[in-house]
């Protein structure tokens, strides 16, 4: 979609640090790095939020999360746990309106997240 920052990232028009990629998803480090390795997983096709997924896309995207979590563990071996978060619509904290799943590595109980 024109003027979508995450479409541009998926198409490599805007640089990002790649964690994982295949034909369906692109996973890259979040600029904000709430914890080291904070990653966003996006479908390569534009989709605004969870309300726009059909069952096929949902299956394709979510089925890849365990593999991406293992890639993240390999890249950040100190990681002791992982939170998975998905904000949908402005009220729920979504700020970029191309659906994305946050993977938040955890290193200790008091590493900035509760
Ligand atoms: P949301 O608040 O919509 O769930 O999360 C959007 C996330 O996208 C934020 O954590 C923000 O740091 C990240 N973000 C916004 N713009 C960019 C960008 O250009 N590159 C990367 N890597 N992350 C971005
Ligand atoms: Zn998009």
Question: What does it look like?
Answer:
The structure is a single chain. The protein has a five-stranded antiparallel sheet, with helices on one face. It contains three helices and five strands. The chain has a single domain, classed as HIT-like (HIT family, subunit A), CATH 3.30.428. 23% of the residues lie in helices and 22% in strands. The termini are far apart. The protein has 114 residues and is of the alpha+beta class. The model has no long low-confidence stretch (mean pLDDT 96). The longest helix has 11 residues. It binds guanosine-5'-monophosphate and zinc ion (ZN).
List the uncertain runs.
none
Overall structural domain count: 1
Helix content: 10-25%
Reading the helices and strands in chain order gives: HEEEHHEE
Globally, the shape reads: globular
Strand content: 15-25%
Give the C-level CATH assignment: Alpha Beta
Q: In DSSP terms, counting alpha (H) and pi (I) runs of 4 or more, how many helices?
A: 3
What's the CATH topology label?
A: HIT family, subunit A
CA-based gyration radius? 14 Å
CATH superfamily: HIT-like
Structural class: alpha+beta
Largest sheet: 5 strands, antiparallel
Count of extended strands:
5
Q: Enumerate the distinct ligands.
A: guanosine-5'-monophosphate, zinc ion
- So, CATH architecture? 2-Layer Sandwich
How are the strands ordered across the major sheet?
A: 1-2-3-5-4
Terminal CA distance: 35 Å
